[in-house]
Amino acid sequence: MVVDKAKRLFRAFAAAALVCLCTASWVHAEGVSVSASVEPREISVGQSAVYMIRLVNTRTAPDLDPPQVEGLTFDSPGQRSMTNIVNFERRDELQLTFRVTAEEEGVYRIPGRTLKIRGEEYTVEEVVLRVTPMDASLRNLFELVLERPERPLYIGEAVPATLKLRLREDVRASLGGAPERSGDAFVQSEWTREPRQGTETVGGRRFRFAAWDVVLNPVRAGTQTLRYRLPLVYENPDRMERDFFGRPRPQQDRTTLTTGTLEIDVRHPPAENRPDAFRDAIGRFEVDAALSERTVRAGEPVTLTVSLTGRGNFERMGAPELGEAPGWRVYPPRTRFEADDRDPRGLSGTKFFEYLIIPENEEVSLVPEFTFAHFDPDRRRYYTTIFDPEPVEVLPGIRTGLAARDFRPVDGTGRELAPPAALRPIKSLPGGWRAALTPPVATVRFWAGMTAPLLALGVLAVWLRRRERLRADSRHMRLRHLTRAARDNLALAEAAARSGNAPAFYAAAQRTLQETAARLDTEHRQPHSLVEQEVRELFQTAGGDDALDTFTATVFQISDAGKYAGALLEDRDLAEDARALRDHIERISRNNVRS
Amino acid sequence: MNPRPNLLILLCLAAVFAAPASAQADRGEAERLFQTGNVYYGEGRFEEAREAYEQALAFGHSAALHFNLGNTYFQEGDAGRAILHYMRAQALRPGDPDIAANLRFVREAAGVDPPPAQPLSAFAASLPRAVWTALALGGIWTAAFAFLVFPRLARAGLLSRLTGGLALAAALTALVALAADRAHSGLGVVLAPEANLRVAPTSGSPSEATARAGESAALRESRERFHNVRFPDGRSGFLSREEFEPVHTR
Q1: Which residue among A7, A416, B26, B250 sits deepest, i.e. has the most Cβ atoms within 10 Å of its Cβ?
Q2: In chain A, where does the domain assigned CATH 1.20.120 lie?
Q3: Which of A163, A171, A165 is nearest to A141 (CA)?
Q4: Cβ contacts (< 8 Å) between A468 and chain B: which residues?
Q5: Nearest C-alpha in A relative to B137
Q6: Nearest C-alpha of chain B: how many angstroms from A29?
């Protein structure tokens, strides 16, 4: 009995617990909360903290990119989820973490953001990280520097640079990763697999160093920033700790060294005094030239080799320009480069431009001259070398009787040789930019835009012409005035007809007829001075028919009767008379215009 | 003073200067990417150079950019796209000898013939399109003023009529050149190494002929996934958008 009761109690308790768990899960599914923190809140340059975003009551991880804060580096993203059940309350928690490394001192605000979880948006608050300067004792142990020319750099230049890690001689360290660069105004050659190592004395102190020799190519003008960082694991000989057996040993730690933000002045090669022959060669070069043969036959190829020896941007320079070469057929040069083994960056060496040139006849006696110009970035000056034409003896061609222009280089089997395989080099300057490949002139919108002002111009011209005619031609002005007056009175007459006002209708109709007749009058009499007979005569002269004549007489008689006798002579259909008036006026005006 | 007019003026000024400032920023970024591509090209890193150039294309077009992209594609062995970009460069700067030389060189290397010269195409190519456009517009406006407006404002003499006549002649010449250039710009280039000319605009359609990368054809019609093209030798059919690309795109 007691056992049964206990079983029932246990079942009831288990069911209740299950219900509570389900209810708790359901309740907490509604209460998602999001928060952000950084620990520790204060670090020194080179040290790292952990930036964490906590999402409570959800297991759904939103898409999350690392924050972007100038001076801080976010890496090693991590994610951890857990579930706690306390007093039957279930609590899911998701932690998203980033390791944040400080590269410069300052107060940094890691910005807040909005996360979208299951269609709902949640706001993550901003957090603040304080970064203090690197401990002075640490600064004595190591430093990261970029050695480069201390002068403005030029777009197109190949700049030798060395990223150097200096370690105090008694410091043992290993790299925590490869060096990293930030600054999109420069393109850099790839890192060497192993850094160059050695020792040097700086400021009277001995250092060991690891150096990476690179080539920097500035690609954007202006004051540009560049920064390098290098993670390092080191043993600090100034701080000792004891190992498992109690023996003293240097404390091991991790830091990230930076060069700081370097501000570099980048310029275009100066436009002032730039020689026409300048083909983007920047550096220091010596020029030489050699001819493969001094005596050749017309139609036989000879090679003019121009060699440039020195240090600079061999990869980007264009070929020296050959001058006018009448009597010579000149092919684009074949190029090759012999690097100086002593220069690990490959910036030093000799570049050869081999021009295949062919004398077209035996009358030529000089090979073409050529000009080479380069810019020396250290001296900030252009240098131009002009090689004068060299004498050459050209004998008559073997295939005598053939026109000189028909000569082509042939191989042993007589097959014509193709010109040297050479793709003309890339352009160093982008030139003018266009928003679209299709020119504006090919678009309907452009021509529609052009047509509107042209139409406006046409309207302006017509308006000016009319104004000018009104000023200069009194007859035209009179006609225009009379036409308007007749039109206005016709409208008045029609309005009077619609309202049944017979006196007003006939008075307006009479004025309309007078003004229309006055337009036909070569004596330029005033319209109101024209009497019935004169109006009828004018209409008849202008080709008016009998109906117009009768209508004119009727209108004048009725109008005069109204004016002078105070009453109309007969009862007439005003609407019909209004229509007749318009027809007659339009017809006589049309006939008049045609005539 | 009422502050509203000032605010209005400021808004107008902001509207006027915002667009050029944005365009300036885009041009700066495009030039940076252009130079970045040049550096990679110089180092023989053609894939990275191509990516930089193509990113620059998002900000604008220049003849030099398409020329360098053509060189890059050729170095990567893609003659079709190389020719396409040389043709685009040539459309932007018709008289450039480097573009003409490389276009000829790559066509020879790919074994494809240039498209037959269109009537007046040499004449149209004798000046850049921008110059023809300026000439046409300047001529139209000068003629309009000389014939329509100037005689109404002052006494029109022989000089005015002569100026108007010359401007009208220049405008008509430029319009003819632009029309010839427009007719030539309806070309496109085959990109696929060997493309089947389908008889219908469907993937499963049979084909009657083939075309090789770098060949130029006239674009007759564009559909959703296919272009209807015609080659100078009379071959015609449908090529997919992956196989053929017009020189001029919006």
Answers
A1: B26
A2: 474-594
A3: A171
A4: 152
A5: A450
A6: 44
Mutate to test the interface with B, among A426, A434, A468 (most CBs of B within 10 A): A426
Give residues with Cβ within 8 angstroms of A185, minimum separation 6.
Answer: A218, A219, A220, A222, A224, A225, A226, A264, A266, B32
Please determine, for residue A404, whether its predicted confidence score (pLDDT) is greater than 80: no
- Three state DSSP letters for A425-439: CCCCCCCCCECCCCC
Q: How many CB atoms lie within 10 A of CB A83?
A: 10
Is-contact A585 A574, C-beta < 8 A?
A: no
Confidence of residue A383 (pLDDT cuts 50, 70, 90): very high
Under a CB-based contact definition with an 8 Å cutoff, are residues B92 and B99 in contact? no
Sketch the domain layout of chain B as residue ranges.
3-110, 121-184, 187-246
Classify domain B187-246 at the CATH topology level: SH3 type barrels. (2.30.30)
Token representation of residue A164: 């150097």
Cα A293–A298–A302 angle (5° rounding)? 30
Give the model confidence (pLDDT) of B166-224 as tens digits. 988 998 888 888 877 776 667 899 999 889 898 888 888 888 888 989 999 988 888 88
Output DSSP code: residue A529.
G
Task: Output the CA–CA distances (angstroms, integers) from residue A471 to A465, A467, A547, B123, B224, in the order listed.
Answer: 10, 6, 38, 49, 62
Q: Return the CATH fold of B3-110.
A: 1.25.40
On average, the pLDDT of chain A sits at 82
Q: How far apart are CA B79 and CA B81, in angstroms?
A: 6
**One CATH from 2.60.40, 3.30.300, 1.10.3470, 3.20.20 for A275-406:** 2.60.40
Yes or no, beta carbons of B133 and A332 under 8 Å apart? no
- Assign B1 a pLDDT band (cuts: 50, 70, 90): very low
Tokens of B226: 């296919």
Q: Say how far apart CA A105 and CA A423 lie, in whole Å.
A: 51
DSSP string, A460-516: HHHHHHHHHHHHH-HHHHHHHHHHHHHHHHHHHHHHHHHHT-HHHHHHHHHHHHHHH
Partners of B42 on chain A (C-beta within 8 Å) are 313, 315-316
| CA proximity to A322, closest of A305, A339, A335 | A305
- Reported as half-sphere exposure (CB side, CA atoms, 13 A), residue A587 has a value of 15
Chain A partners of B148 at a C-beta cutoff of 8 Å? Answer: 457-458, 460-461
Amino acid A595: pLDDT: 47
pLDDT for B17: 46
DSSP code at position A331: P
Domain A474-594 has CATH 1.20.58: no
Nearest to B43 among A189, A429, A432 (CB): A189
CATH 2.60.40 fits A136-266, yes or no: yes
Segment A371-393 shows an average pLDDT of 90
- CB contacts, 8 Å: B129 with chain A: 439, 441
How big is the CA angle at B55 (ends B49 and B57), to the nearest 5 degrees? 105
Beta bridge partners of residue A131, listed in sequence order: A43, A106
Whether this model's pTM surpasses 0.80: no
Give the one of B35, B148, B249 whose C-beta lies nearest to A219's C-beta.
B35
Give the integer Cα–Cα distance in Å for B198 and A71: 57
The pLDDT, as a whole number, for residue A85 is: 75
> What are the residue ranges of CATH 2.60.40.740 in chain A?
29-131
Tell me the sheet residues that pair with A334. A354
Is the distance from CB of B60 to CB of B44 less than 8 angstroms?
no
CATH code of domain A29-131: 2.60.40.740
